[in-house]
Amino acid sequence: MRTFAEFSLAFGLVLGLSAPVWAEDAAPTADRVIATVDGTEITLGHMIVLRDALPAQYQSLPDEVLFQGILDQLIQQTLLSKAVEPEMGKRDVLALENARRAYLADGAVARALAQAVTPQAMQALYEMRFANAIPGTEFNAAHIIVATQAEAAEIRTQLDAGADFAEMARTKSTDGAAANGGDLGWFGPGMMVKEFEDAVVAMKPGEIAGPLQTQFGWHLVKLNDTRPTAAPTFETVRPELEAELQQQAVDTRVAELTAAATITRDDAGIDPTILRDAALLAE
């Protein structure tokens, strides 16, 4: 369903009227009044701000088409808002205050981010995190998991006698990896429970360990291969670095403002369910 803004703009665009031609001695400014509605001025600045907020499909339209559509929209919005303004209730007043507060808060956040999230800051964070990173190791392993030590020991006997590990996993193992011959794929430190990881770290490719017990049952583990891991490239972790700097910037700015402000709270003893009582807005 269209919002009024979309409906109004679309209606104006259908008219396809042309934008005005400015006189050479009247260079427009943001304060230039383009229309008045019962004494309320609509300026060129109002129109520019509205255009900047339009969806991309409207912003791509020709300027001469957009101009009239935006002006028509602002005139219609002014007419409609004036029609209901005398009937505004507490909910309307409070909603406008919340909208203003949110808009200004978003602006404060944008300023904090512009100052903190710079290419230089992102590069510095990357180097701090990864420049001196110690290369690690990833492991590729398979396992067979059963409920009892006795069952695991019997399977180990068969493996030592030459049974195929993948086939034994498919027929004996009780977890989801059984269908793939017990294959667990590649994993790094901290991704497996400690008992399992300790066993894998001590193994060489091709070796089988176990039975060993974890909280999930009794395992037989085969290490297929290992590979070194290097620090990720800057581009790989760019989104992570940016998100971290953004959060730091907002937290820092909020902390600064909080420390400089006098804040009082009087919420002790208030039942949180009172927020459900919309009847209070009728007072």
Helix content: 40-55%
The total strand number stands at 6
Query: Percent of residues in beta strands?
Result: 15-25%
pLDDT average, as an integer? 86
CATH topology of the largest domain: Chitinase A, domain 3
> Radius of gyration from the CA trace?
33 Å
- How many domain regions? 3
Instruction: Just name the CATH architecture of the largest domain.
Output: Roll
Lateral arrangement of strands in the main beta sheet: 4-3-6-5
Low-confidence stretches: 11-19
Verbal overview:
- With 283 residues, the protein is of the alpha+beta class.
- The protein folds into 3 domains: 84 residues, no CATH class; 54 residues; 94 residues, Chitinase A, domain 3 (Roll), CATH 3.10.50.
- It contains 10 helices and 6 strands.
- A hairpin with a 2-residue loop joins strand 5 and strand 6.
- Helix 6 packs across helix 10.
- The chain is elongated.
- About 3% of the residues have low confidence.
Short synopsis of the structure:
The protein has helices at 4-15, 44-52, 56-59, 63-84, 90-116, 119-131, 149-160, 165-172, 194-201, 234-260, and strands spanning 33-37, 40-43, 136-146, 183-187, 208-214, 217-229. The chain is an alpha+beta fold. The protein has three domains: 4-87, no CATH class; 89-133 and 275-283; 136-229, Chitinase A, domain 3.
Indicate the topology:
Blueprint: H1 4-15, E1 33-37, E2 40-43, H2 44-52, H3 56-59, H4 63-84, H5 90-116, H6 119-131, E3 136-146, H7 149-160, H8 165-172, E4 183-187, H9 194-201, E5 208-214, E6 217-229, H10 234-260
Antiparallel strand pairs: 1-2, 3-4, 3-6, 5-6
Helix pairs in contact: 1-4, 2-4, 5-10, 6-10
